[in-house]
Model the fold of this input.
Amino acid sequence: MRVAVASDLSSILTLGVLTVDDVRVVERDAGMDLPIREAEAHARARPPGDPGAVRSMYRRVGIDPTKTRPSSEALLRRVAKGGALPRINSLVDVCNWCSLTTQLPYGLYDLDRVSGDIELRLGRDGEEYAGIRKDVVHLAGRLALVDVVGPFGNPTSDSARTMVTLATRRALFAIFTPPSRAADLPGVLALTAERVLSHAGGRETSRLVV
Done:
């Protein structure tokens, strides 16, 4: 599998990619309860980072980030208002925990539902997909991860086609990173891998910065 970023986006963001095989996904891992509560409390007391860099990444492709929020900022706003991170399943919970901690938008996909090579590019007129717990997500002019079947993810809302379930055994994490945060990616990928292996098992198969 090849992962590429379209040339017209190369100055706008860097993509961090982590793939893991043989994961075990459960409804809820109680071992995450305490560290997630601590991360939520820390985020309320000392918000992790300035959302400006990620917002700028959105604006540079013509998206208003106050109307279409990056997933990382949406999680932080939820927690800051006294809410808790949504608990979906153990792998999605790791993803949301990492996104809250790093304040970078993550995508998470069942790698067995992704077909062929992957490109991050701008969505074209008419491109869309069925979102997770949402209606159709329209992608024209928006950042989009695309495989040979079509678009399946972006930094705001991912697709139902490639969503992670309890049956997932191979996973792909994508971290959408503005240029000013690119130097953070090795540490962010290491943190993500450590949390995945601790709470979902498996073995890391690739770690890329594209």
Q: What stands out?
A: The longest strand covers residues 14-21. DSSP finds five helices and ten strands in the chain.
